[in-house]
Amino acid sequence: MLLSTVGRRTGRKRTTPLLYIEDEDNLVVVASNGGREKNPAWFMNIKQDPRTEVQIRGRRTVMRAEQANRDEKQRLWPLLTKMYGRYDGYQARTKREIPVVILYHDRPSTRES
Asked: Residue 32: in which H helix or E strand, if any?
């Protein structure tokens, strides 16, 4: 998947390749940054502007990104590590809590944070 965000400092479009899983109609990604101590730039960008564009197999979709809450992450993390087992190692390597991000089709939020 290619995730495009607006750079929080530059205002320019930034595109990042990411692994993802599908969760019903949503997509889920991990802001692991390889287990580094800082969150990846794309995560910081969506914190400022949650509007994103996702491209999968040539199809582009406008989506809205939200960080998963504790219960959502607890449910999604085993699915994410099943898809890519290194996420557990990344979490063990860093002191920060690695964020999980849910990408929703661009519509108003109906979930509680």
From this structure: none
Domain borders along the chain are 2-105
With CA atoms as reference, report the closest residue to 50 among 39, 63, 68, 69: 63
Local confidence band at 113 (pLDDT 50, 70, 90 cut-offs): very low
Q: Which residues contact 94 (CB under 8 A, 6 or more apart)?
A: 35, 36, 37
pLDDT of residue 15: 98
- Looking at residue 107, what is its pLDDT? 55
CATH ID of 2-105, from 2.60.120.200, 2.60.40.10, 2.130.10.10, 2.30.110.10: 2.30.110.10
Buried b (16+ CB within 10 A) or exposed e, 51-72: ebbbeeeeeeeebbbbbbeeeb
Average pLDDT over residues 80-106: 96
